[in-house]
Amino acid sequence: MTPLPPGHRFPMPKFGHLHDHLAAVGLLGPGNLHRPEPAAVETLGRAHDPAYADAFLSGRLDRDALRTLGLPWSAGLAARTVTALGGTVLAARLALRHGLAANLAGGTHHAHRGHGAGFCIFNDLAVAALTLLEEDAVDQVLIVDLDVHQGDGTARILRHEPRAFTLSVHCASNYPARKARSDLDVPLPDGLGDAGYLRVLGHGDEASGFRGLGWLLEQVEPDLVLYDAGVDVHADDKLGRLAMTDAGLRERDRAVLEACRGQGVPVACVIGGGYGDDRVALAQRHGILHEEVARRWRAERARDASRTAAARSLP
Ligand SMILES: [Zn+2]
Question: Which CATH number goes with the domain that contains 293?
């Protein structure tokens, strides 16, 4: 575990709790739990200034840079950071192979090319997108960022990369104060609850020119979706200002998976933001994503099996 000072508002223990929660409900096993390789410096360099990456990894960031980041440096934090980032790259590769995969961390969308911010050191979404594009594993990526905060770092890093389309659906009045320009931004009003949120996701929002996720998938035609399923849209979240419930979160995740998988698009998921003092409740909230990914996975396998059986029974 990465040591943070007692009372630090970044809920580092949630990651361990999430693992334990998913193991307890039977969703983790030797067949589906993969251990990522720490991301190499060259991999980070696809999205980040090498001087910044090197300064962070070697503990040489200055005090101002650490203050913007919001986390105190330690060797443990550096190791954890590159492993979590490796997890998103691995999830993206697994999604291309199997259709669905989910990291137990990730979604560090406030990290910029040359500096970290808002608890985000390196931008796993941008790194994963640029890595797979550079390897020609995909021609087009769509980043669906539904964390309550705008994905400003991702938007800025990928601004000049037309093969990576950035969608950010976020609370307009929330951090960051100075928003970046995503390929498509959908700012939401404070206090929006399940029904309003799900309506926007499914049917769009006239003011921002978004016509719903299904529509966007048809426009962008991605080979891969990177989905940031931040749970800070929840009513009980300490840093969110929307008013979603657990049931609403579940419907949101289900809707994203259905929209993407219904069009045959692989989806790699990351957990994104989630803040609160009850770390166990928080971990269970993040676990909704993995439960829905597992449900979708089982439904797809059952459908494949029945198709195979039907094909075999043909004369
Ligand atoms: Zn967030």
Answer: 3.40.800.20
